[in-house]
Write a structure and sequence with these properties.
Helices cover 43% and strands 19% of the residues. The strands form five sheets. A six-stranded mixed β-sheet has the order 3-4-2-1-5-6. Strands 9-8-12-13-7-14 form a six-stranded parallel β-sheet, sandwiched between helices. Strands 17-21-20-18-19 form a five-stranded parallel β-sheet. The protein starts with 8 loop residues before the first helix and ends with a helix. By secondary structure, the chain is an alpha/beta fold. The structure holds adenosine-5'-triphosphate. Adenosine-5'-triphosphate (ATP) binds next to helix 4 and helix 6. Keywords: ATP-binding, Helicase, Hydrolase, Nucleotide-binding. This is ATPase AAA. It comes from Pilimelia columellifera subsp. columellifera.
Length: 686
């Protein structure tokens, strides 16, 4: 492998001018595409056949116009490929033999000229794959890969790797380094220009494939998940628009931080929620004790609920007799029992089963009516029979209608009912912890807790099957409980999942210790587990400090390595925390970038007030210049300068406090200052 040769200044100038010309021409072409789309939008109603078609066409064209919006500050392309024979892969990654030569620009979206010739290739197009994957040893038909540097939308530099001459920069790329080390002010940005080969492999994995990524802090898991969503939507737009793509993140601060990435990539329709929002059936107004909460999230509850629901189905005791004008039809108890048994064996969701039993009974009544009258009864007749009192009473007796709320209310209000469902599964003490001390009088008046929502969702899934989503991306998935995983599994029986997380960052009481368990609860036990170890956020010195905690975290994960060798770490024992935090924030403010003061939850509000009183202005939004962040919401976030306050209190505040500290220490992009009055946690000092 050789170092890239340098281009003489004069040639450099000529080349830069040519590249800027191509950029200007591409912008003009994009503008023309948008004009054409706007004209079509304006004329849409005249070509559509009917009002519905006109509306659909209008929506599609408006979307197209929005997708073609140009932003002067976002570079239209960031790379160039010179090809002497690249083999294009199809959607699945399989090569289909078309050999391509010539020059191609790679950017955020496809731009073509009037004749339809590509001026910029979408980064997700099959040919663009070579931009991310080619290396000197496997150059995939690439002779030269060029990366462009931009400043405020203006093309200012480029960097070549002549792969055909064995030149390759890898992580020594100046443009990659600049991108990684740039100050993090504002919301999270996309990484399309610098996706690394190991990340690209995950981003472009086929839609059918579920994957689980175990990655150390800052290895780009969130970035990979977001780019994977954009990639899948590009390849399977119509299918996924119908079925939906969902991103699940740990909290609303995190979702706010990542919210701008997909729109910047032209993807405006991906739902982004917390797991609680996904399963909410109304506001959670109740609270759980620590013990009952953990039991409710335990996978055994699924079986308790299943038993409780299906215990409602009983064998019919007598026959049905239905009057129909001057006739009277009859179905014997034995026949009814067989129907109930058969339908149970079919394994349908409860409500569908009930409908099917009703339909079978009506079919038997219909047979009798047909043999008597010689003609088929109408649908109205069938509905009348299905709703007739004897049929309704039979159904209410042996397959009663059920709602999640009523069932759970019955279980949590009544120790005997719970015991009947939980016998052999939950201990007596566990059952006692679940039953309400003061039962709600009706299901409607129950004050459901967040953990109850998980149980209600499980019941709802037993009663009626939810629609299947096309793809779900689960970020910080190590914190999902078995029951929460099941909630996602129910929503993806025909879809796939991308699971992103770090076992070392598990802070929930049910945090995963082994990805195989999580994937089994998600219904994808065969998914591969892929490690990511190269860190793009946390500087080397800080990674080293955080890695000291790993042996104490009880998980088996590969340690991270940092691409960043800059960075600064200070640990200071202070007398007065508030004074020290204010002084540290002032010192940090002398450098560009965002500042995050991460404090024990109990201290956060006081520090925010103290900073405000001192004339600093901590904001609440993530991505602002200064934020005071309670330790429990810092997950997934990052700041150029992180001030960690009182690590020992963070550790002592919760059961998995050491894991929390690991999360908190790994939020820093450039500088980490630790301020403490209490002795540091032992794990940090060994
Ligand atoms: N290939 C890349 N090029 C440039 N920046 C990158 C790349 N990959 C990741 N980054 C940046 O590194 C930072 C960390 O990425 P990200 O938040 O996705 O990591 P993570 O693995 O989800 O971290 P954590 O587990 O700590 O939440 C982000 O600022 C992201 O933009």
């Amino acid at each position: 492998m050789t170092e890239p040769t340098h281009t003489p200044a004069q040639d450099l100038h000529t080349e830069l001018t040519a590249e800027r010309d191509h950029l200007a021409a591409s912008r003009a072409a994009l503008h023309a595409m948008r004009m054409r789309a706007e004209q079509m939008y304006a004329a849409g109603h005249t070509v559509a056949g009917d009002p519905f078609a006109a509306e659909m066409l209008g929506i599609a064209l408006a979307r197209r116009v929005a997708e073609l919006a140009d932003s002067q500050t976002t570079p239209l392309f960031f790379g160039r490929l010179d090809l002497d024979g690249a083999t294009v892969a199809d959607d699945t990654g399989a090569e289909h033999g078309e050999v391509v030569r010539g020059r191609f620009y790679v950017g955020r979206r496809h731009v073509s000229d009037d004749a339809g010739e590509p001026m910029v290739l979408d980064w997700r197009a099959p040919l663009s794959r070579t931009f991310y994957r080619a290396s000197a040893s496997a150059r995939l038909g690439v002779t030269t890969r060029r990366r462009f540097g931009f400043n405020d939308g203006r093309l200012t530099s480029f960097e070549d790797e002549r792969l055909s001459l064995g030149q390759e920069l890898g992580s020594a790329s100046r443009l990659l380094t600049e991108e990684i080390e740039r100050p993090r002010v504002g919301p999270m940005r996309d990484i399309v220009a610098t996706i690394q080969p190991e990340q690209d492999e995950l981003v472009r994995a086929p839609l059918e494939v579920s994957i689980c990524v175990q990655g150390a802090p800052g290895t780009g898991k969130t970035a990979v998940g977001l780019h994977r969503a954009a990639f899948l939507l590009y390849l399977h737009r119509e299918r996924l628009r119908r079925s939906g793509v969902l991103i699940v993140g740990p909290n609303s601060a995190f979702l706010g931080y990542i919210a701008a990435v997909l729109p910047a990539l032209g993807e405006l329709e991906v739902a982004q929620s917390t797991i609680d929002e996904v399963i909410a059936r109304g506001p959670a107004r109740g609270a759980d004790g620590a013990t009952s909460q953990v039991i409710k999230h335990d996978a055994r509850m699924a079986e308790v609920l299943r038993r409780a629901l299906w215990a409602k189905v009983t064998r019919p005791e007598g026959p049905i007799q239905v009057s129909d004008g001057s006739y009277r039809w009859r179905v014997d108890a034995g026949v009814l029992a067989r129907i109930v048994d058969d339908v149970r064996r079919e394994g349908l969701p409860y409500a569908l089963g009930r409908d099917r039993v009703r339909a079978r009974v009506v079919a038997l009544l219909q047979l009798q009516a047909e043999s008597r009258a010689g003609e088929s009864p109408t649908e109205a007749w069938q509905r009348r029979m299905g709703r007739s009192k004897p049929v309704a009473e039979f159904l209410d007796g042996c397959w009663p209608a059920a709602t999640p709320e009523r069932l759970l209310w019955e279980l949590l209000s009544d120790a005997r009912r719970l015991a009947a469902a939980a016998g052999g599964l939950l201990t007596d003490a566990e059952q006692a912890a679940l039953v309400w001390a003061k039962p709600a009088r009706t299901p409607r008046s129950a004050r459901w807790s967040a953990a109850d929502m998980v149980l209600l969702d499980e019941l709802a899934g037993l009663i009626e099957r939810p629609a299947s989503l096309g793809h779900v991306i689960l970020d910080e998935a190590q914190d999902l409980s078995p029951m929460q995983c099941r909630a996602i599994a129910r929503r993806t029986p025909h879809g796939s999942v991308t699971v992103l997380g770090d076992l070392a960052q598990g802070t929930s009481p049910w945090a995963a210790a082994d990805w195989a368990d999580t994937m089994a609860h998600l219904g994808k036990p065969d998914a591969g587990i892929v490690p990511l170890t190269t860190g793009f956020r946390v500087p080397h010195v800080v990674v080293e400090l955080a890695n000291r905690l790993l042996p104490f975290l009880g998980v088996n994960v590969p340690g991270g390595v940092s691409l960043r060798h800059d960075g600064e770490l200070t640990i200071t024992a202070v007398d007065d925390l508030t004074t020290a935090v204010v002084a540290e924030v002032r010192r940090a403010g002398q450098q560009p970038g965002s500042i995050g003061v991460i404090a024990p939850d109990a201290l956060a509000a006081g520090l925010r007030d103290a900073l405000t009183a001192a004339g600093e202005t901590p904001g609440v939004e993530v991505g602002g210049p200064l934020a005071v962040v309670p330790a429990t919401v810092a997950k997934g976030l990052e700041y150029d300068h992180v001030v960690v306050v009182e690590p020992a209190v963070i550790v002592g505040a919760e059961e998995r406090g050491l894991h929390r500290l690991y999360v908190v220490l790994t939020r820093a992009v450039s500088r980490l200052s630790i301020l403490h009055t209490e002795p540091l946690p032992v794990a940090l000092t060994v």
